[in-house]
User: Fold HTH lysR-type domain-containing protein from Sphingobium yanoikuyae ATCC 51230.
Amino acid sequence: MFDHAQLRSFLILGQLRHFGQAARELLITQPALTRRIQQLESDVGVPLFHREGRRITLTAAGIAFLPKVQLLLADMEEARRSAQKAAGTLAGTITVGFDGAASYTLIPRLIQRTIRDWPGVAFKFVELSSSEQMREVAFHRLDIGFVRPLPHEADIVNQCIFSEPLALAVPAGHRLAVKRKLKIADLDDEAFVGYSEAGLYLRDLIAGILDRAGAVPRVIQSMKRTHSILALVSTGMGVAIVPAGSASASFDNIVFKSLSLDERAEWHACRHVRPTNALTQPLIELLGT
Assistant:
């Protein structure tokens, strides 16, 4: 009666309650997402969402439908895994590049899912910047790179596999650490630790957020890696906007505060347009689910 794409679109929209964020998570346009939801509602026979301007909420029917959809998708995934395990086709070693910050989110997710689904697959990990990974992928010295979205050569394919919200990292005891509702405007004239040009994607993403809010913090240091930025925040040197997943880094004297932003930090899987390792695309698809 309805397909996997419709069910997954409903689940993501039901969780995020925002058409723009859900469309980015699903790697489709907002009109395409709207059509999927409308078709699903037609198939189910009842409205699943209330739409009031930009505000999206589940109807009573949608609330009842959501856990059933989660079970359906889990059953579909289990069926897929069972077939792949029975076929026994995925085994071997794959070389994977990653930026240091990917160790907070992507690398644990990759290892856990692969151990569960394809225990015959082994990894060789190489830590490099996003631009370095793209160069190594182009020369077939890496099978997959986990990179931030950056311009790349025509023989490279980038696919968004994960996005995460941004958070404000604040030294414990800082006045903003106890503020209940934070606005970007609160960072005006605040001592700030930012990303350097080597962290171009996050630097530009955060600069745009600050600019649209009219906030001009005092940038006292610029670093290329999230871990280095957090190390400076932990000393009380200033505050920083970072991907929320970095909260798993071990800094006891930093408070991470949620920010209500549409912007999210993306991770892309980078591969050669003609991969030489048969494991490359299946692993990217596994992470994409």
